[in-house]
Amino acid sequence: MPDLSTDTPTGRSVLRGVAVFAWATWLWSAVATAVAHERVERPWLAVVLLGAALVVNIVVTRAAARPDRAFPPKIVAAELIVGYALLAGEGWVFSAGSSSASPARRRRTTCATSSASCR
Q1: Quick one: CA torsion of 63, 24, 32, 76, rounded to 10 degrees?
Q2: Strand 4-5 vs strand 70-71: parallel, antiparallel, or unpaired?
Q3: Does 25 score more than 50 pLDDT?
Q4: How far apart are CA 33 and CA 86, in angstroms?
Q5: pLDDT tens-place string over residues 77-96
Q6: Is 33 in contact with 95 (CB distance < 8 Å)?
Q7: Domain extents for the chain?
Q8: Do 67 and 6 touch, CB atoms closer than 8 A?
Q9: How far is 86 from 52, CA to CA, in rounded Å?
Q10: Which pTM value belongs to this model?
C-alpha cells in the first residue's frame, strides 16, 4: 500500500481536505454532545472519546501541514480506531431513550419496557 505523499499538489489537497473534514466533524460532535448534555449518561466517556478524537485531529493536521513527509499509515490506523470507538461508544454515552443512542440499544430498551414481543 503506497503512502499518501504530501509532496504532490493532489496529495497536499487531499490531506488538507481530510484535516478540515476531521475538524468539522469533531466540532459537530462536541456541539451535539453539549446541546444534548441532559441525555449524557456517562460524561467521562464522552470526554475520553472527544479527547481522543481531538488528539487524532491535531496529529492529522500537523501531518498534513508538513509537505516534506509522507502521511504515515499509523495515523490512518489511529484515525480508524478512534472513529470506530466513537461509533461504538456513542450508545454508552447517551441515555437509551435518546435519539443519539444506537438503534440496537434503542430496540433493547423498547423491548424491555414495552409489552410488545421483540425477537
Answers
A1: -40
A2: antiparallel
A3: yes
A4: 12
A5: 999 999 999 999 988 998 87
A6: no
A7: 4-113
A8: yes
A9: 9
A10: 0.70
By C-alpha distance, which of 79, 116, 115, 108 is closest to 92? 108
The three-point CA angle 80-23-73 to 5° equals: 30
How far is CA 84 from each of CA 10, 79, 89, rounded to the nearest angstrom? 27, 9, 8
Higher pLDDT, 71 or 94: 94
In 36-102, where does DSSP find H-type helix?
43-64, 73-93
Long-range Cβ contact pairs of 29-35 (< 8 A, separation 24 or more) = 29/53, 29/86, 32/100, 33/93
Residue 102 has a pLDDT of: 46
